[in-house]
Design a protein that fits this description.
alpha/beta, 6-stranded mixed sheet, 5-stranded mixed sheet, 11 helices, globular
Length: about 375
């Protein structure tokens, strides 16, 4: 069960700001910081007024701390609860900004600012919040957040923890954006996942957190669930370092495992879809085929791609997807998709445009894919 939610996004701090921003479906990116004079300066969905990180902590760690604080507070967790709680963190690069600031931040200049490893963010969060149970850093590229949530659920399912804080975060990285630009994966205008003119992704930054809890623990603490995880599946294409396997076989397998936990087709699917044509096509086909194989109709599922208005948040993307699924279930609405002038005719799902659409069935599928073919799919249902 999900008993706490927290978010820091380009819309500001808090899940309320995130939901209102998604419903508006109009945000466009800002120019990214200068990348050493590279031409065709890319765009970025940046977190506004994030503030300066604490000494020894980078921007990702700071954003994660804010998101976790909101989720922990909403769940009403005490210091005693957190002492035995687990912690899972999805991130691609961790506090990469600590090693991108220039020669004054080189290793040896200050031990507190040594070049970071992704797992240092997890250690920092555990220390800050007094989380003493099992911890894990998931760094499966862009699907890391989805893996972090599913791994947290497995810690609960196997009896290793009753409560797990599952979170994901990544911040702006000069190296990452420059690399994506050189590979031709960035759209010079905006992210258009469902438009035939899509030309790539737009990077974003942010952090999201969920408090996962066993049903027994939630009852004992008198907490109401936002959503319940009905099933999840993992797989790996093992096909190419960057491109998905064209048939989508392994992603379809992950989706089938997740869908086994719900009856028929989900009401909506929060897709990884990021504006990269081949990735978007493979994902939509695989999800549609998995829904059909489960006895549902792909066209009855409402497809939603939040990256159009908040950018690709890398390791945070999967957690944002799960958080958005919980909000969709809470409000009974699917936000409209943005930046769609010419809808993709090959998408088998129904794509809401123009305004929010009622959720037809109380279940939501969340898809996460990453470089290296790492796939994680989660199925959520409304709490009884």
């Amino acid at each position: 069960m999900v008993t706490g939610l927290g978010a820091v996004s380009c819309f500001g701090s808090g899940t309320g700001a995130l939901w209102e921003g998604l419903l508006g479906a109009s945000r466009r990116p800002d120019p990214a910081p200068d990348l050493c004079g590279l031409p065709d300066r890319p765009h970025l969905y940046a977190v506004p007024d994030a503030g300066a990180p604490a000494r020894g902590t980078g921007r990702t760690g700071s954003l994660l701390a804010d998101a976790v604080a909101e989720a922990v507070a909403e769940a009403g967790l005490t210091a005693g609860d957190l002492l035995d709680a687990g912690l899972t963190v999805g991130t691609s690069l961790g506090d990469i900004d600590l090693s991108e600031r220039g020669p004054d931040m080189r290793a040896g200049a200050d031990p507190a600012c040594a070049p970071p490893a992704a797992h240092r963010v997890t250690a920092s969060l555990a220390a800050r919040f007094g989380i003493g149970g099992p911890g894990q850093t998931l760094s499966t590229a862009c699907s890391a957040g989805a893996y972090a949530v599913a791994w947290g659920a497995e810690l609960i399912g196997t009896g290793q923890a009753d409560i797990v804080v599952a979170c994901g975060g990544d911040a702006f990285s000069r190296v990452a954006v420059g690399t994506l630009q050189r590979f031709g994966l960035l759209d010079g205008d905006c992210c258009r996942p469902f438009d035939t003119g899509r030309a790539g992704m737009v990077t974003g930054e942010g952090a999201a957190a969920l408090v996962l809890e066993s049903a027994e623990s939630a009852r004992r603490r008198g907490r109401t669930a936002h959503a319940v995880l009905a099933g999840h599946g993992w797989s790996c294409d093992a096909h190419h370092p960057m491109a998905p396997e064209p048939s989508g076989e392994q992603l379809r397998r992950s989706a089938a495992l997740a869908l086994a936990g719900i009856d028929g087709a989900p009401g909506a699917a929060v897709l990884h879809r990021a504006g990269v044509a081949v990735n978007d096509a493979v994902e939509a086909t695989a999800i549609g085929e998995a829904v059909t194989a489960a006895g549902g109709r792909a066209g009855s599922v409402l497809g939603y791609a939040p990256k159009a208005v908040m950018g690709h948040t890398a390791g945070a993307a999967g957690v944002f997807g799960c958080l958005i699924a919980a909000l969709v279930l809470r409000h009974g609405l699917v936000p409209p998709n943005a930046h769609v002038a010419n809808p993709d005719p090959d998408c088998p799902l129904t794509v809401p445009l123009g305004g929010p659409v009622p959720l037809p069935r109380p279940s939501v599928l969340v898809s996460g894919t990453g470089f290296g073919g790492n796939n994680a799919v989660l199925a959520w249902r409304a709490a009884a």
